[in-house]
Each structure stands twice: as C-alpha cells, then as structure tokens.
Amino acid sequence: MDSILRAAGMYVALMLLFRVAGRRSLADLTTFDFVLLLIIGEATQQALLGEDFSFTNAMLVIATLIVLDVGLSLAKLNSKPLARLLDGHATLVVENGRFLHHRMRRARLTEDDILESARDSQGIENIEQVKFAIVERNGKISIIPVE
Amino acid sequence: MSEDELLSRRHPVQEDMPMQQRVWRFERVGWYVLVAIVLLALAGLFGNGPLSDAQVVSQDGRVRVEYQRLSRSGTTDSLFITVQGIPGQPVEVQLEGSLLRDASIETLQPEPQRSMSHGQAMLFQLGTKQDGVATLYLTLRSEHVGTLKGSVMAGPESAVHFSTFLYP
User: Fold this and answer.
1) More exposed terminus of chain A, fewer Cβ within 10 Å: N or C?
2) ipTM of the complex
3) Domain named YetF C-terminal: which ranges (chain A) (predicted)?
C-alpha cells in the first residue's frame, strides 16, 4: 500500500511542479536541461522506492504511474474542460510579422527564441517573413511563414 | 496594444486568453510559493535548521536535551542528552516515549555502564568524572509519519518532555 501512495503522491506533486515550471521550461532540451532532468529523476527515484528494492515494489510503482497516466488521458478524452485545464491552449506570439510582447513576456519568450525557431524550422531570415508564431501546448514554437 | 494582445484569436488557433492568463498567474504565484518553500527549508522548516533545532532543560536544570523539533521520516536524527550528577558517581537516565518505541536507535555513545528495561522505558547508567556531567549521544531513525514524543528522566524533579514531528 505504501508504494502505491508514494507513486500517486509523487505523480501529483510532479505534475503540479512542472505546471508551475511552465510548458516552455523543458521543451527545447539543451544539454543542461537534460542533465537537470536526470537529476530530478534521481531525486524522485529515492522517494518513490524508499528502501524496498524488490521486483514487486518496482512493478507496483510502475503500474500505479501507468494507471494514473492512462486514466488521466482517458478522463481528458471524455471531458474537454479538463483537457483544457491540464494541457492549456496554443497561444499566438507573433501575428502578421509583429511580436506580441506582452504575451511573450508572460510566456518567458524572447524575440531571439522565436527567430531561432523560425530559422530552424522554416529557414526564415527576419520577422517580416513570419505570418504567425504559436507556442504549442507542449511548449514548442510553430512558425507559419508568409506565403 | 496590450489590450489587443489580451483578446482571444480565432485564427490560426482557437485561443482562450482569460484561461491563459490564469495559467500564467498560476505559474507566477507558484514560483513565489516555491521560493518561499526553499527559503523556509533553509531556515529549517523541514528539519536541520534554526527553526528545527531545539533544546529543553529540566526544572532543576540537571537534564538538558538537544533535539530536532521537525524532521523527516526515514532520516537519522541526533539526540544529545547531558545530565548533571554527583561527581565520580554513576547517574541513571530513563528514556521513554513513542520516539524511542517507534524509532530505532542507530548509535548510542558512549556505551552506558549498564542498560536495562524498566517497563516501557529504557534505563541507562552512565559514569561521570570530576565535574559530574554525563553525556549521551543517540542517533535515531524512524519510518513513522507524524508526532513522536519522548521524555528523559534522571529523578522525579529532573524530567524533560519533548516531541518531534516527522514529515513523510
């Protein structure tokens, strides 16, 4: 019973923490982000398993995490408001070649971040060539160029 | 300009700006909450800090216990007991309470001259030198979550009671 509660508690706690961190935080994984993610995993692992390193305990923890994760995605399928609450919306940050600075600030994005995405995905040189830039729900920046 | 940015767009994606603003506010408030948690943790809210270090002295001043007011389940905590006795003569200390029942004693230093059980309690006999002060250093570990109480006695007038709260 212990390990089930541990896993469930950790799932909820991590979900809240990553929601606070925002969708941008680990979207474009730099080397440092990757290391950070590993450390977070390491810190989580101890609390998840406790001192019980048995096969059964590991399976129980994994099963609990999968049950919660699949359960949540099923719940999201059935309830649109819940899906909106948990996944958020895509947000426009560039409209017809014009930066929406207020939104960018709130989403912790700089002009350079957007231009970098534009160069990377569309080979765009300057902002006038961008029709729309959208922060997707997973934190990636989509670029729609001017035709 | 800023007003315009707060309006929800329909094309190329359906936006919900009031909701998005709540999300952003949640992120901002959450960040401050995390900063507060980190600062409080530094201060010892979760153990090992000024907020958590505590000591109690018995009414007659003979027994003094240094303990952790707040701690976490599964970590080791130290308990430092000093007893004033008669110089050169052994002194008896009695430890009891849920703290000693639910936690396992990992180390006990120095080795008491004698140790025995006394009902629910443990009785230790410690030697003293010229100054008549005996010290006992224990490290305890418990998987318990919640409050654990302990008491140390060296006579009817020399008793201290303390409690430790263990976070999960």
Assistant:
1) C
2) 0.83
3) 78-145
